[in-house]
Amino acid sequence: MDQNSVTPLWKGSSMIKGIALLLLFQLIGESIVFSSGIPLPGPVVGLVLLFVAMQFCKTMGFSLFSEAETAADGFLANLGLLFVPAGVGIVALWSELQSQAGILLAILVASAIITLAATVWTFIAVQRLIGRE
Amino acid sequence: MKRPTELWVYLSASPLLWLTLTLFAWLFAVAVSTRLKRHPLANPVLISIALLAGTLKLSGEPYEKFFAGAQYIHFLLGPATVAIAVPLYRQWRQVKRALVPMVAALVVGSFTAALSIMLMGAWGGLSRDVLIAFLPKSATAGVAMAISESLGGNPSLTAVLVVLTGIVGALVVTPFMNAMRIKDYAARGFAVGLTSHGIGTARAFDVDQTAGLFAGIAMALNAIATSLVVPLIVRLFL
Questions:
Q1: Residues of chain A found within 8 Å of residue B161, distances taken between Cβ atoms
Q2: pLDDT of B208-223, one tens digit each?
Q3: In terms of CB atoms within 10 Å, which end of chain A has fewer, N or C?
Q4: What are the structural domain ranges in chain A?
């Protein structure tokens, strides 16, 4: 591209465009949840809509979402940081929960193992059932 | 010249201090985790939470003041959840190839994750509020917190339980699968991603590329499944 040409507004700041698109899909998701009353978190509806939109664009053969992909990679690479503010809220709850900490942890460990087992066995059993590999 | 205590009073009332501290706590925690070769126990989320919670305890500042600064980071959970569409889109071909076993494992796994908490929690005498915060613990934290909050649970408790679930799953998956003599790395990865979201996925990538790929897919799919399953279980049992 010619260095001296004026960058079109929309093509300019790609990071901003990526973030704006992610926020737009969250906004649409939140709007649908609010108006329809379906019991889903708005961002999850946004996730599904963005996925559908990306598949649609791929089928139609045009690319709209490369900046959104870059922004998404950035968010997902630092996802853990975003859990920290809420997690620190445990200090406000600690006095209440202290007495239950043992039972909570025991249930958590048992549930994790049961979930791992149920998931892996279902995956393998169904794979055998439909006769692949 | 003002006294240091006055400076603290001034700074601790502004979002700037707590936002900056949160970012540096995270950078420090990531450095520690990297030093310890990303061992699941050295989880950067848990280290950051411990550092910041300790700072609040020591300084006696209320959580509300901290959150006034940290809320700018918290806000980004929404777009970060939408962002999960991107890896799902990129791996869709893999998903389609094993669609039937995946959907079956997703349905069984997401119900098992929540129902096991429901049953053991009721048996263990947990209160309704704690149960609601506990049920979505296998979904990635942003989604789990949103589910918990929408049903009247405490998102902070959910966040901590989600991270702990991630760590536990990442720690037990390899010895457990080896003991069960399961050698299918796609199935192993899918199970740990479903159970232990991003932390399990990171662990799966350490063990095997295929396992990591399927773990990432399971995490994305279970974010959606959990937001359908948990409200249903709450409506049926609570």
A1: 104, 108
A2: 988 999 999 999 999 9
A3: N
A4: 1-86, 95-133
